[in-house]
Design a protein that fits this description.
304 residues, alpha/beta, two-stranded antiparallel sheet, globular
Length: 304
């Protein structure tokens, strides 16, 4: 297993039009592997496969990013009640599994979909209030309560589609030696919550599927008052395959660790030593911040 992996999320810059340059930059900054982000377009992905010398820790489905069913494939819903959309989403994820097998990546990270295509209106309103500085009070409480109630009301049929989708993906991936990583999500209408993830994974071995913890996503849902940030690793620690590491400012995530205010202690305590550490940092973070992320998290016990 590699030590530190850097997502190609950071590669969304003009200077990395040639993805060989990204691979060289990642190495120079202290990363010995890369994870292919679902934002990586087909030409960039092809270049990664064309003699870049990269070691692939995983592929974040659906990658590469391309058009499918008249829209970008990363907007397709694996839990959709529309069979055409769900089948297209499954096909795109299976393509990512094939790519992972071809490059010996080991893992495919999956967003399992959600209740429809968009955030619940109440969550959208609460996020706008949060960004405007209103983070508590009667209006916020009412919107939060509406979000929680609406999700509970609407979730069951979508959750069953998500369960069926996961079963199909795990069967396909297992035949190819690939493990499915089920990621916690940024928006509350999406699957899974911690208890849902435990239920979904119960029928699979660690060699088939596991939990993929995203620090920023957990932090944002906690800041909005939806899910305790500790619930994920408390519930799923033993099933945790890996972690997407990034910092959060307000409810803006994908900052380089050290460029936000995440309290890293509970991550250091709850993340298994065996879990892969993947730095999922956005393209607006500087080279220095990307390099400093490693010693920053080493000092906090998140990496060793």
């Amino acid at each position: 297993m590699t030590s530190y992996s850097l997502s190609t999320m950071w590669a969304q810059q003009e200077r990395f039009e040639d993805m060989h340059d990204f691979v060289r930059a990642a190495r120079s900054l202290g990363y010995d592997a890369i994870e292919v982000s679902h934002h990586t377009r087909e030409d960039g992905f092809a270049r990664l496969l064309d003699g870049s010398g990269a070691t692939f820790s995983g592929i974040h489905a659906p990658a590469p990013n391309r058009e499918a069913l008249g829209k970008r494939n990363n907007s397709l819903n694996l839990a959709s009640l529309d069979d055409a959309e769900r089948n297209a989403a499954i096909a795109e994820t299976k393509a990512s599994v094939d790519h992972a097998a071809a490059v010996d990546a080991g893992f495919v990270i999956v967003h399992l979909g959600g209740i429809g295509a968009n955030m619940l209106e109440s969550e959208q309103k609460q996020r706008k209030l949060f960004d405007g500085g209103t983070r508590s009070g009667p209006e916020v409480d009412a919107l939060r309560a509406e979000t929680l109630e609406r999700r509970a009301e609407l979730a069951p049929p979508y959750f069953e589609r998500a369960r069926e989708t996961l079963a199909e993906l795990v069967a396909y991936a297992s035949e190819r030696g690939i493990v499915i990583g089920l990621e916690n999500r940024l928006h509350h209408h999406e699957f899974p919550l911690a208890g849902e993830a435990k239920e979904l994974l119960a029928g699979y071995t660690a060699q088939q599927a596991g939990y993929w913890h995203d620090v920023g996503h957990a932090e944002v849902q906690a800041r909005l008052g939806y899910v305790d940030k500790r619930a994920w690793l408390d519930t799923l620690g033993e099933r945790t395959l890996a972690c997407h590491l990034h910092d959060v400012d307000g409810i803006g995530d994908h900052r380089a660790p050290g460029n936000g205010d995440v309290e890293w202690g509970y991550i250091a305590e709850g993340l298994p030593d065996s879990a892969l550490r993947v730095f999922e940092i956005n393209q607006r973070q500087s080279d220095g911040d990307v390099a400093n992320a490693i010693p920053f998290l080493r000092e906090r016990g998140v990496i060793t």
